[in-house]
Specification:
Elongation Factor Tu (Ef-tu), domain 3; 2 domains; alpha+beta; 7-stranded antiparallel beta sheet; about 25% strand
Length: about 400
């Protein structure tokens, strides 16, 4: 039997971060993972460049049944704290739109940094380790694994969610919570492409590969970013963002010209007696293939002076107030995050510890806190892990 102070289940972003902080306090830390490599999702994130945080991180960028829960962790270890660590390791990075921060070279730089920090405080990372059982003992926990029996005073669950099962995602973290009677908020895929109803899929199949700026809205939320039409449905940043706020059966409103008052623009051109056809005018804003899908040819071939107010309203309705009811999402297979998870009401927002099981902690994606696209989920991993690391 191996006896240690802390066992962390999961060698991903939150698990490694928690290990570093616990190790700094002189705790003996063992990180275990069923995978053959640490930080697999870190390596694939951000197209291999790892969008590791964002310059603007607010509680409003997160989704949870308990909207206040994330505030403590995010304020006590913020994006600038993590950035200081990145800079200390001389990792070159750059800022993209919406404040997203990416490595210049490779996501491997972030993983290398975390593993180096772990090594510096004598953290042991043990891979290829499956858990057979966990028991609550008088002095902590006993884990039976494929690599032998482990004993610890503090047990940290950093197993992540269900997203991208081909990367090794499993429901283990939720199963452990349920074993100890801890409530789970129902999970679903987030930051995931939307699929279309059969008729819409056929109608828009010719648009596959087209990307345009778009504002997507429902009565709860709206986002304005790039929309990508695919052979399965709708993707791109704006569709991924909105997917976390969409439920089956709901309509979404799409504005394909979000920066333009189309009615005023067309009426002004008509007033100026611009002789161009509607198609020629709209060509400067949207791809021809898209226009043909949304507007009839007889309307597109009208010259501006011949357009009635009613026709202008029809054009605006089709392009700026397009109503669509997605069929579903692509699910966990391509989702970037799992919504729901371990109920925040069962945890301390200060320590991430279970309120009912002493010594048991939950951090990162396994908890019912999910961020927007743009580095927010990594920041939640760093912040929640840092907090737990001060107490385990």
């Amino acid at each position: 039997m191996i006896k240690t102070d802390v066992v962390i289940v999961g060698a991903g972003a939150s698990g490694l971060m928690c290990a570093i902080e616990a190790g700094k306090r002189g705790r003996r830390v063992l990180v275990i993972d069923h995978a053959n490599k640490a930080g697999k999702k870190i390596l694939m994130s951000g197209g291999g460049r790892c969008n590791f945080t964002n310059v603007t991180v607010e509680p409003e960028n997160f989704i949870s049944n308990n909207a206040h829960f994330c505030k403590s962790a995010l304020s006590r270890f913020n994006q600038w704290d993590f950035l200081a660590l990145v800079e200390r390791h001389h990792i070159n990075f750059h800022e993209r739109e919406h404040g997203q921060l990416f490595c210049n070279d490779s996501a491997k730089d972030v993983l290398t940094m975390l593993l180096a920090e772990c090594a510096a405080v004598h953290v042991t990372v043990q891979l290829d380790t499956q858990i057979d059982s966990i028991k609550n003992c008088a002095d902590g926990f006993m884990l039976e694994t494929t690599q032998g029996v482990l004993s610890c005073a503090s047990l940290v669950i950093a197993t992540g969610g269900l997203s991208i099962p081909k990367m090794g995602a499993t429901p283990l973290g939720y199963q452990i919570a349920q074993q100890f009677g801890i409530a789970i908020v129902p999970t679903r895929a987030g930051l995931v492409p939307l699929t279309l109803q059969p008729d819409d899929k056929e109608r828009f199949s010719s648009l596959s590969g087209i990307a345009v700026p778009c504002k997507i809205s429902n009565h709860r939320q709206s986002f304005t970013e790039a929309l990508l039409f695919t052979h399965r449905g709708l993707s791109g940043p704006v569709a991924l963002q909105m997917s976390s706020y969409w439920f089956a059966g709901e309509d979404l409103e799409m504005n394909l010209l979000p920066q333009l008052d189309l009615v005023a623009t067309l009426k002004e051109k008509r007033r100026d007696k611009v002789k161009s056809t509607l198609k020629a005018v709209l060509d400067s804003y949207l791809p021809k293939r898209l226009l043909s899908c949304f507007l009839p040819e007889e309307l597109l071939s009208c010259t501006l002076p011949d357009l009635s107010d009613h026709q202008i309203q029809i054009v605006a309705q089709q392009l700026q107030r397009w109503q669509i009811k997605p069929n579903a999402t692509e699910g966990y297979r391509t989702a970037e995050v799992t919504l729901g998870g371990v109920d925040c009401d069962a945890l301390s927002s200060k320590t991430m510890a279970s309120k009912q099981v002493p010594g048991l902690y939950f951090i990162g994606e396994v908890v019912d806190v999910s961020g927007w696209l743009g580095g927010y989920n990594f920041q939640w991993a760093w912040s929640s892990a840092w907090c737990a690391g001060q107490y385990v």
